Amino acid sequence: MERSKIAALINSAQPIDKILVKGWVRTRRDAKSFSFIEINDGSCLSNIQVIADDDLPDYDQVRKLTTGSAVAVTGELVASKGGGQRWEIRADEFTVFSLAPESYPLQKKRHSDEFLRSMAHLRPRTNKYGAAFRIRSELSFAVHQFFRERGFRYIHTPIITGSDCEGAGELFRITTLDLMNVPQRDRAVDYAKDFFATEANLTVSGQLSAEMFALSLGDVYTFGPTFRAENSNTRRHAAEFWMIEPEMAFCDLNGNMDLGEAFIKASVRFIIENCQEDLNLFARFVDKTLMTTLENIVRSDFERLPYCEAVAILEHAKKKFEYPVHFGSDLQTEHERYLTEKHFKKPVIVYAYPKSIKPFYMRMNDDNETVAAMDVLVPSIGELIGGSQREERLEVLENRMDEMGLPKEPYWWYLESRRYGTVEHSGFGLGFERLLMLVTGIRNIRDVIPFPRTPGSIDF
Amino acid sequence: MERSKIAALINSAQPIDKILVKGWVRTRRDAKSFSFIEINDGSCLSNIQVIADDDLPDYDQVRKLTTGSAVAVTGELVASKGGGQRWEIRADEFTVFSLAPESYPLQKKRHSDEFLRSMAHLRPRTNKYGAAFRIRSELSFAVHQFFRERGFRYIHTPIITGSDCEGAGELFRITTLDLMNVPQRDRAVDYAKDFFATEANLTVSGQLSAEMFALSLGDVYTFGPTFRAENSNTRRHAAEFWMIEPEMAFCDLNGNMDLGEAFIKASVRFIIENCQEDLNLFARFVDKTLMTTLENIVRSDFERLPYCEAVAILEHAKKKFEYPVHFGSDLQTEHERYLTEKHFKKPVIVYAYPKSIKPFYMRMNDDNETVAAMDVLVPSIGELIGGSQREERLEVLENRMDEMGLPKEPYWWYLESRRYGTVEHSGFGLGFERLLMLVTGIRNIRDVIPFPRTPGSIDF
After folding, report:
1. In which band, very low, low, confident or very high, does the pLDDT at A170 lie, cut at 50, 70 and 90?
2. Sheet-wide strand order for B173-175
3. pLDDT averaged over chain B?
4. In terms of Cα–Cα distance, which of A400, A3, A307, A418 is closest to B99?
5. Torsion of the alpha carbons at A39, A42, A43 and A46, rounded to the nearest 10
6. CA-CA distance, B354 to B357, in Å (whole number)?
7. Is the pLDDT of residue B264 over 90?
8. Distance CA A109, CA B137 (A)
């Protein structure tokens, strides 16, 4: 007999004579001549309630069931007389796969997020983290569906790279050299002896590679892991996280903004429509304002304004910021959140940033002072998207690289794309975990990643 | 005016008065009073033919168009009088974004795969590689759709790990230590000073992490990059490749085989149904037997036989193998291909392998000699899937680790999953690039990866 998943049973249209459920015991309550057992199989947030009468063959086994024990139950799916659930199971057979000992850490009580981080291998068994990782899965699918419906191709850009896309440092080195005996040549590491015969790092962005494919296949996107060796322990940073990076040929900054706005709205809408039960948990217990925030995002036309106007608003704001703002300063999270939460009360797209605070590949505006960059800011998160139109003019790009002191040789292939059939193109990067934090209200990035990697922390 | 993609135009149901197309010139042929220009925009294999009359405003620009130049065309979509295409565009306006110089490497002629590998940034602009990477994108989507329809959750298991799943070595080390000045302590590298305060490597498999989620959420899968620092230059090996790893709670080896068979069939069927045009290219120019191979896979019941029977067949085979076979030897590609291509002439699942050639986590059979492992072998590839039922009995697992000399401390969390509510569970790993090689007939793994990483090779 094939097992039924609880997600299917709780939505059953009618009673079912005979079903088989397998899962883990959440709680057991004993009455005089029967027991209630709540079973969860991870397919959804809800448990299914099982009623085991004392005339069951193995009823003494049932009386021993502890939280976390694994069981199989066959029986009848019947309308529940008790409140709180539509269906329950009247058991006719109980098989105990394994009894969890009393030391099982996830006893029925509230555990702190810190405590649960120390057992990342068990926390998806809790309501909150089960829900978070089911939403993570659904949101991933929403990403692929969104882009595929629009004719985008998914590209797996390399994780191990020889180049540093942002020129920003903070790289993890990859090597097979013996660290107790690093070969040297001319007073430097002799990378010729390393696996790739040169320096190799973990990628910080797939953008430059994705551009090559946009200039071939048209609309493409990446969705994969990226890395920052940033030694900072904050709620917003992890050493390993997933990024979504669409890249579009024949697309200018306006088209880029349109895509970013459409993507965020579609993602939020997908979760509201497809993850109702799990989302409710977060709206009730994690962030009371969650649904208001999400509905505001879906309904609003995102405000679009140039960086200089954003700075003017911040300069005139009554709020005192930790970091003062003036033209030329990078916006901090406090500024971004002020703009989107307090001033406009909806998502905001800031564009035309000073070239001095942006990377080399962004397209120079005619003022020769600002570049065709855009950031999308959303309530409760701040910056969710950073993107730009790319510099497609070879000469302008090379001049900019010279100005910034970047070597051109490692970028020969990137520059070739501007030599052969160059066209305007645009794209952006979106941190997948930030999007997850937005839709769940979870405040710490460690709590939306199955096994988070942060400085000094690589357990599991 | 919004641009139309060529993929949409070639399937248009009727003529269209006014359209805008943007793309790259593949060829230009001049007649006396007009020119034919073939344009491709990467949305599909087909070009669209444009007819530019000499009374166009910028007709002298048109006469300069070279292969690889980027253009925009507005005009009318009309039925084509020539053979070979249903629709063509009668241009009324031509904009040249950029002219490709004569040095553009992708002139209209056949280029070798080796040559194109040296320009991985341009090769997706060719018919063959455009088709390969469109199929890669569609096949990725097929993976997600297959699992989601069956209620599986997608899990992002970590790329940076402290553990070595297979215990097989061949690891890439990750570090932020200064390699010119590696800190030491007690005559060893002082990893306490490294980013994660311990040794860190690139993952070789997400399985152990995925098991934790199967034992929480039920059915899960991973689909992400994995790494092998294997210093071998073969057509089948890359240092970085993508793996698909489903893991199912309450599932034994038979269920595992069923899933593997269903997955391969569904993937092949998806490509046959959704990538007809691109697939035809491979069937015509790359592998004449491709469609026969694929249809055989979709139609066959996969043969299932224990390892000992497979060995007996190989021992009695007339073919002389490079590596002789006996009970206890690992099957080589030549053996796998003999079984699936010559002997059974269809996909084969070999199960119950000797424990001596399999990793510690596979479930011990009652004979205490073989484990509940299974490999799926397919024509033209050999091993496509390797999987097993996992050892869920704590004591048996610990004994096996002792037998193999594995330290238990790094696996404390893995062992805990057997202490708390352990249940039978199974899963497998499938190399995504091998699946792609199967469906395209491409014989070199370097040619199905956007920017392949192999020993000594990390360009782009």
Report:
1. confident
2. A160-161, A201-202, A173-175, B173-175, B201-202, B160-161
3. 96
4. A418
5. 50
6. 6
7. yes
8. 45
Q: Is B233 buried (19+), middle (13-18) or exposed (0-12) by CB count in 10 A?
A: exposed
Q: Residue B7 corresponds to which tokens in the numbers above? A: 């993929």
> How much is the mean pLDDT over chain A?
96
Strands B188-189 and B48-53: unpaired
Q: Give the whole-angstrom CA distance, residue A51 versus residue A31.
A: 10
| pLDDT of amino acid A108 | 77
Neighboring chain A residues of B228 at a CB cutoff of 8 Å: none
Q: What is the pLDDT of residue B217?
A: 98
DSSP lists the bridge partners of residue A90 as: A51, A76
Cβ under 8 Å to A: B residues 200-239: 200, 202, 209, 212-213, 215-219, 224-225, 227, 229, 231, 239
Nearest CA among A261, A161, A157, A160 for reference residue A214: A157
Type of residue at B209: S
What is the per-residue pLDDT for B65? 96
Q: How would you classify the pairing of strands A382-389 and A370-378?
A: antiparallel
Angle at A125 between CA A123 and CA A129, to 5 degrees: 55
Residues in A touching B164 (Cβ below 8 Å): none
pLDDT, one tens digit per residue, over B195-216 is 999 999 999 999 999 999 999 9
Of A175, A200, A421, the CB nearest to B24: A421
pLDDT in tens, A305-360: 999 999 999 999 999 999 999 999 999 999 999 999 999 999 999 999 999 999 99
Instruction: Provide the 8-state DSSP code for B320.
Output: P
Residue spans of beta strands (DSSP E) within A230-381: 240-249, 303-306, 348-354, 370-378
For A112, A182, A240, B171, B200, the CA distances from A176, given in Å and listed in that order, are 40, 10, 21, 8, 12
The DSSP element (H or E) to which B34 belongs, if any, is strand B34-40
Query: For residue B166, is pLDDT > 80?
Result: no
Cβ contact, residue pair B216, A451, below 8 Å: no
Per DSSP, B203 falls in state -
Packing angle of the helix pair B276-285, B127-149 (nearest 10 deg):
130
- A373: β partners: A388
Set of chain B residues whose Cβ sits within 8 Å of the Cβ of A255: none
Cα–Cα distance measured from residue B150 to residue A173, given in angstroms and rounded to the nearest whole number: 39
Instruction: Please give the helix or strand (H or E) that residue B87 lies within, else none.
Output: strand B87-98
CA–CA dist A267, A264 (Å, integer) = 5
Contact, A357 vs A311, CB < 8 A?
Answer: no
Radius of gyration of chain B (CA): 27
Helix ranges (H only) for B286-390 are: 290-299, 307-315, 333-337
User: Quick one: pLDDT at residue B188?
Assistant: 94
Task: Give the CA distances from residue A453 to residues A165, A234, A241, A449, in Å, rounded to whole numbers and listed in that order.
Answer: 22, 12, 9, 9
Q: What is the DSSP letter of A30?
A: E
Q: Closest Cα to residue A458, out of B159, B51, B333, B268?
A: B159
Chain position carrying tokens 């605070």: A357
